[in-house]
Amino acid sequence: MAGLALTAEQHVDAPPGAVFALFGAGTGAGWVFDAACDRLVVGAAVTLRAPIFGAAGEPVEILGRVAALRPPSRIEIVHDQPWRGRLRVLVDSAGIGSRVRLIADLDGAGLNWLMRRRGFAVSDGELAGTHPVGLLTSKSGPASVFASPTEHVAALAVEEINADGGIRGTPVRLVVGDDGTDPDLGALEAWRLVKAGCRTIMATTTSATFTRAAHELRDSGVLMVQTVMNEGGIGGELRVQLGERPEDQLRAAAGPVMEAAGGRRWFLAGNAYIWPRVVHTAARRVLAEQAGTVVGESFQPLGTRDFTPLIEQILRSGADVVLSAFVGADLVQFERQCLAMGVRDRCRTLAPAIDEPTRERIGDDASTGMFGASGYFEELPGEANEAFVRRYREMYGRFAPPVSSISESVYEALHLYAHAARRADEDTPAAIARELRSIRHDAFPRGDVAVDGPETFRQSLFVAEARPGGFSVSRAS
């Protein structure tokens, strides 16, 4: 179909040169379209909020990278969330100030996303003759920061599965749903995937969405697989929870973080939903074993933008380490504000949900001094991971967001599902789930993995310290 362009416009009381120079700076004219960009150079990560639904609609958060610059009048941005496309930011004189226009190019996928978000029914296309598998992810909302490469990596896995004969000779078809980082919308999208013909759904979402969707689909006969780090607890016949567990992550990283911090006083802070609460509970057990102490705790609503009162509380507490159980855009905002208010000068941070796309959005300055613990990082050595990253870049280009444990997990989950489906004695979700609950695989990008039951996923863990441009990774002892 022919492309479509949507436009938005703002007026700024500054000349074009000043607007261009301050784009994404967070002050003065840099607040145009709420743009955030640490350095205006080709390849830099950019986040902005585009009012493409008009004045009456909520702005759409766009995650992308600077692709081209033409000072002082043009900035081109390629983006992957919430659809894959290109934006043009045009700056020209308008009286004593500047007119700033944002032009968003939409293809069919982008138009479908926009129409669904406005409540229109959109067909998923012809699925006859395929094996449809749903992918429920966060193409928008706070979790879109960590979910940004997930759809790409899932498509790569499907391409490989189909090149190997598909499932019982039938090609796999990926059908994508966007939960908007909202459990209610996630439940609706899960039902849409089921009605489209998906008998299996891979969920790369917050636990709040997975729990809600799993409850909604409890009598549907659909297999749901949670691929990302989670707290466990709701596995069953048709519910499989893979990913890292908070207690394992904390046991791997708490010692190295306290050693780096030179202290044992912890402040626990996170979003107010189930996964961060389980992280905090696990932290109290692990820290008690490792002679750490908790000097404060706080939960903030998902979608918080101003963390000033919380950060002031952290500074008063005398903490040496902050356990940051925030996710996605909230983790980005919190850590950037921690740097601005001096926390980074006094504390180290352990963030179980930090990954490569999130670290990029936090920025080099604000992420330095942060630690994470996961089963996969893009920097892992080894032929399997090097080949995986190379295929990803060949398919999606140098401006695609980096791969992380969160996105790579769906790649593995889809391959494990395909192996289980080929081994199952019949082509039903229940039979496939039985095989999936006792499957092993070696030579994945993260190494050997094994599924033992509905919520036990065995893998090696790695501790990573953020540094400019990426992470320094070591295997957990």
The count of β-strands is 21
Going by helix content, strand content and strand pairing, the class is alpha/beta
- The CATH architecture name of the largest domain reads 3-Layer(aba) Sandwich
Instruction: Kindly report how far apart the N and C termini lie.
Output: 54 Å
Rg from C-alpha positions?
22 Å
Question: Main sheet, how many strands, which sense, barrel?
Answer: 7 strands, mixed
Number of helices: 16
Q: What is the number of independent domains?
A: 3
Can you identify the CATH class of the largest domain? Alpha Beta
CATH topology of the largest domain: Rossmann fold
Shape: globular
Which range does the strand content fall in? 25-35%
Secondary structure: helix percent: 25-40%
In CATH, what is the homologous superfamily of the largest domain? Response regulator
Strand order of the largest sheet: 13-12-14-15-16-20-21
Rounded average pLDDT: 93
Low-confidence stretches: none
Pfam families: Peripla_BP_6
Keywords: Signal
Protein name: Substrate-binding protein
Domain Leucine-binding protein: 133-453
